[in-house]
Amino acid sequence: MTDSCPPHHSKSPKPYDCYDAVSYSPFPGNIALARRHVAQLAVDWGHPHAAGDAALLASELCTNALLHGCVRDRLFRVETSLTATALRVAVTDPRGERLPHSRPSTTDDQFGRGLLIVRTLADRWAVEKLTVGKTVWAELDVQGVTDA
Asked: What does the CA dihedral 124, 70, 73, 139 come to, rounded to 10 degrees?
């Protein structure tokens, strides 16, 4: 699979040390699968301290993709990559015309806090418009050398 959203801040020819991509069908149960997969990658890649936050970022980004970005019978993709300084979770969905935006929520609302969680946990996050669809990514700063 080609990497549509590799980290851009690296100066080396290979922009990341570890990379993984999985496509999922747009069903709610796949959010949990993606969350567990991203957490396991963080552990496998030598950053168990980041696994919980990475899993929560994946869960929120996947939920937003499922609720606002998916089209029937079109997959969404979760890409996870690691550089020497950052663990990135990127979720790509087919609806580029529906860009994420924060909205006010009340204590009784069941939805509307996903981007607030992403903004709070992530050291950086952004949206990239693609020819078809969009990618929303978030990064966690990490330190140390991995053996992955």
From this structure: 10
Look up residue 23 and give its amino acid: S
Residue 44, classified by CB atoms within 10 Å of its CB into exposed (0-12), middle (13-18) or buried (19+), is middle
**pTM greater than the 0.70 cutoff:** yes
pLDDT less than 70: residues of the chain: 1-14, 69, 96, 98-113, 144-148
Q: Give yes or no for a contact between 55 and 75, defined as CB atoms under 8 angstroms apart.
A: no
pLDDT digit string (tens) for 2-28?
444 555 544 445 688 999 999 999 999
Burial 89-124 (b: 16+ CB within 10 A, else e): bbbbbbbbebebeeeeeeeeeeeeebbebbeebbee
